[in-house]
Every structure is written in C-alpha cells, then in structure tokens.
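Lecture 7, part B: from sequences to assemblies.

Below are the input chains for today's worked example.
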Amino acid sequence: MDIDSNLRREIILDNYQNPYKKEKTNDSSYVKVNSNNESCIDNLDFFVKVEDGKLVDICFDGEACAISTSASSILIRSLIGKSIEEVKNILENYKRMINEEEYDKELLGELNVYFGIQPNRKNCALLPSKAINEILRRVSDGEDNQNR
Amino acid sequence: MNREDFPMLQKDIVYFDNGATTLKPRSVVDKMVHYLEDYTSNIHRGDYDAALRTNEEYDGVRKIVGDFVNCDLEEVIFTSGCTMSLNMVVFGFMKNYLHKGDEVILSKAEHASNILPWIKLSEEIGIVLKFAKLGNDYELSLDSIKEAITPKTKVISIAHVSNVIGDVRDISPIGKLCKENNILFNVDGAQSVPHMKVDFKESNIDFLSFSSHKMCGPTGVGVLVMKKEHMNRCNPLCYGGGMNQFFEADGSYELKSGPSKFEAGTPPIAEVIGLGEAIKYLEKIGMDNIHKHEVELKKLLVEELEKIPNIILYNKKADSGILAFNIDGVFAQDTSIYLNSYNIYVRAGNHCAKMLKDDMKIKNTVRVSMYLYNNKEDVLKLVDVLKRSEDIFKVII
Ligand SMILES: Cc1ncc(COP(=O)(O)O)c(C=O)c1O
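Predicted structure of the full complex, as structure tokens:
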C-alpha cells in the first residue's frame, strides 16, 4: 500500500486524537507493562489478555506524543485476536520497517503509515511494539515457570 | 551578547536549552586544547616544567572559583558535577551527621539530584524528609520554609533557582534563618551560579554545588564548596591516590585534610582548567549583566506569548531566564519536535523534577531556558513559530 502523505497524516492524527482501546483495566487476567521511553518522555501502560495462545484483548493508557499514541492505537487494532506466533511475526516486520530493513509490506496493513518515519521518531514508533514484546516474554516465562 | 564567541551559534539555530547545558565559547575550548596539546601532564608531584605548569593552572582554578562565589580557596572541591557534589554532601557528610528522626526540609520542585540521595539516606538511617509548601505559582517562599521548620529540623536543602519554575529563592534570609536555628544550609546552585552573583559567605551557605557545563565550561567537572569546619566530619566517597598522607600494611592510614581528601585519583584536569576559563569569561561580562539580560528577554517572551490564546504559561513571575509552557492540547514533546523543525532547541519533559507533578497537575512542559548569548531575535523567532502552530501536526507528522 503506497500512501500519500496527506492520507498518512490523517490516519496518524485520527489515531492520535481518537485512539483505539485507550483505557485502563484492573482485571488481573491481563498482563501489564509500563513502557517508558528512554529517549523521550512518553509514558504508557499496556495491558494484554492472553487466552489459549491468542491475544484476546489489548488496551493501553497514559501520556505520550502523537507518534507513540497513534502507533499504539493502530498496532493494537491489528493485533487483537491474533495468535502469539502471528503477533511476533507482525512485530518483527514492523520493527524491520521502522529500522529501514526488508519487511513484509502486505502483513503490516495500516501500520505502513510509519514507513520512512524520521529518525528522531523511531523510538516513539517502536514504543508499543517493545511493550507488547515484553508482555509476550513475560507470558512465556510464566508458562516456563508453571511447567517446571 | 557576545554571540560571536560561540562557534555553535555560527549555525542558524536558536539555542534555548541552557538549563540542560550551555554552549562553550571559543576561549574555553582553546584553553583546554592548549593543555592537551602543549603541556599535558598529571597534577601532584611532577618535577618537570609541564607538570609544574599543570599544577599551577589546576590549583589556580580553586582561587578563581573562590573569588567567583566568595569562599576560601581551601573550601573548593572539584567533583564530576553537581550531582556528585550533592551525593557527597548527603552520603559523605549527612550520613555521619544526622540521626534517626532528624528532619530535612526540601521542596517538591527540586531536581532528582537533590531528592533521591535524601530518599535513599532516609531509607538507610531513618531521617524524615519534609517538603515545604509551594506557592500559587509553584514558587518556594521564605515563609513556607519558616512554616516547615520544627525543633527537629537539622538541614534545609534547596536549589537557589529551580530548574522548571525558575523561581529565585531568597537564599540570604534563608541562610540567616538557618544560622539562627542551628540548621545546616545545603544549596543546589546548578541553575543559579551560572546566571547570577552567588555569595557563599554572605548567604551563610554550608554546602554549595554546581556544574561547569551549565556555565560555559566543559562537561565532567563540577564544584562542591564546603565550609571548612565541616570538612573533618565529611567522609570521602572515593579512596585512592592523591587523598592520603600515608597507609601501612597494619591497616593504619591518614587522609589529607582540605579539598584533596575528596579528590581521589586523577581528576578531569583539562576540564577543571576549562572551568577556570569559563568563569573568567563570565566575570568579564559580569554576572549582574547576565542576569538582567535574561530577565529582560524572559519578560519580552512572556509579553509576546500572552498574546497567543492557546499558549499556557506556568511561571510568568519567576525572576530568571526560565519559562515553562505548553500549547493547549499538545503533548510537550510534540511541541519540542515541532520547534526543532525550525531549528529552535528547547526541552520537553518533567526536567527531572518528577514530584512537581503533584502540585502542577501536569507532568510535562516545554522549557525555554536562556543564557547570555540569546537575543531578542531568538525570542521573536520562537514567538513567530508558536503563533503559526495550528499546523503543528502537518509539520511533525
Ligand atoms: C537544579 C539542578 N540541580 C542539579 C542538576 C544536576 O546537574 P548535573 O546533571 O550536571 O550533575 C541540574 C541539572 O539539570 C539542575 O538543574
């Protein structure tokens, strides 16, 4: 999908101003991480509920810039309902795109709006994917512990 | 003032991040290069010409600092920076001096470097931290410090100028109050020493900390001025060469007295020499002139920004070159990225004063902090770009 810059901006702005699933949850069946970006002041909490190897629900809350917030919104929309393996694959390709490496364009859908992002915004764009990766790591650590 | 002295200003930038660090004038860079290229050698005990020269230059800076903040040169300790100086006060001196239940007065507008060491010490030895109330504009007044004092108060530890609000605390009367009540006065001078005249003796300060890099000098060096009478009681945080009289196999040892006791190992020699040059540079311009210049620029900036409806100002009153603001509804970092696209350098964040959010109800602001080389054109350029900020997302996305 080649996106013209106006449309691109519109999508990002819409997701910044009306972010998808920007809400807190106290439900203990969700795994929570706080993602604090070292290079900036974004500070977001992510909540993921994993059931039968699927990310059945994801939400996020906090204060962050336009890029981090919109990327969280778009990413969450594209991940909910997918299996852990599918999610890992999308996150990996998303990271590759941001880092200007080869990636699977088809797989990323609307996330392609961050293609060619300015270098000083890369960390902002990667903030939600790092957070969700961290949650997946904790989920699999937790399972390891149970199996032991 | 003096823009031509600063190589970085040859580029088309507006540098408004002086609270974080300042630009370096050519004379400071040259002075350091001179040491590095022409007489590199270590201090202490050298018998050859270059080493004698280095000793002379290095020790000369103690006198320059002493004259600059009005203390004795035997009270000047070189550290790695303001943060280290403050940690030396807390863990070198206070840990020895304070006891469980003793009270230390701080404010919530302090920099992390003047809060976290105290939190750690209170965890270690059970001292009690009390936060003096901030006023309407988040300023810290003499009265609210008076209110916080109890018979158990042993220390008042505050910044002379706060790094977010920029309010200039009334340190002379506070120092007097300390003296009358047998309270030690620890002053974080990171944001004041570079910008105005600070008088260690007159303000009855016990400990004064500041960093070279915020005052036209290099990174990696700072100063702790410690009243002579406290030096014996203060433990060094670092042991090694240059700070001992003798040590023996039976475990006996004796430390040097005076500043050397706190300067174990090879210090940042080039940086100390650079700091000396930076102070000379500032004194040539005059600290009162620098302060006056910054306050005038801030006044102009406030006047102009007040005309823009969607700009929120947080510290109009503060009598320094620091202004904290937001564009209504825009995350502070998005604003700073927007300004960067016009080569205007500011800082967005909580500015290491994380407790201030309790009082301000917002976590992040954009901070403009001025210095001697900023001018009216810088201010008007910022104002102009902010006036046009309705297209901010077009610019940054
Ligand atoms: C008020 C205040 N105190 C302490 C510091 C710490 O200075 P440094 O990082 O140079 O050690 C700063 C620096 O931002 C400051 O603004």
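Note for the exam: Chain A touches chain B through 17 residues (CB under 8 Å). Keep this in mind when comparing with the next example.
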